[in-house]
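Exercise 7.
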Amino acid sequence: MFDNLIGQETLKKFFEYEIKNNVLSHGYIIEGPKYMGKSFIALNIAMEITTPTYTTVILPTEDRKLLSVDDIRAMKEDSYASTFGGCKKVYIIPNADDMTAQAQNAFLKLLEEPPQDCIFLILVQDRFNILSTIRSRCITLKLERYKDAEIETYLKSQGIEPSPEIIKLCDGTLTKYTSLILDKNYEKIEELAYRILLHIRELHIARIFAITKHIKNLKDYVEDILDMFLIWYKDLYVYKQTAQTENIDNQSRLNDVIKQSELYALEELEEIIKQINFAKLRLEYNGNLEMTIENLLMYMRGGILNGFSAGSK
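Solution. The predicted structure, written as tokens, is:
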């Protein structure tokens, strides 16, 4: 059972028990960050419960980005239709935490009187973005971050030779790297991130403001940019502390790591790493994007917020 799934042992054991003992609930919230492969996991769960004929992925209709109340009503109507041979129906709802308020209320009414033999797999990045009354009627399962060996196995299955740099970029997710390399904008985003990192100490404050506004316009990639920043400064910290290169993730930029490490004190690198993690946390809780990025870049530049000196350009 679940031979196609990499990792997620806790989730697999849970559903194996539920299915074998015929004690399936009507609603499961599957929570995990972007790039965890939540839809693929849900489809594999559905395959063990029923046939493809009775598995439905609920997506927005009429070119809408978010599930609407009409989409939920259509699902409700379908869910009450009979199946042949007593098969169960499974409905997979990706990005359920992006449902409109009206759609969530309509879905709540469906959960209050769930159709017989219907199971809803509700996929979210943050379960607290859906109504507490929906959460209370479902079982929540939180996905585990993938181990490096599991990410390596997945990348090799996709014909990609994994490097420490690639695995670190995946940040415990499964499909991040493969999704990014298919994104036509990713190469430009990567170039921007490393251009900032290599010149941040020399930038004039006015240039910082301009870069902040540019990043704000790339809001779909801000998380990726911050991940690149974090990997970079961790590499500088490791080299600054050990003067060894074998544990550096940015092996393709090793010379730059060595040169840039000379520009920072060890304590300063520790502080910058803390500030990047803090920025990620603020954005996760819907903090002001422009202010968060601007403050972070000032810390990285030095000389403004944290008392370290920096030149100007």
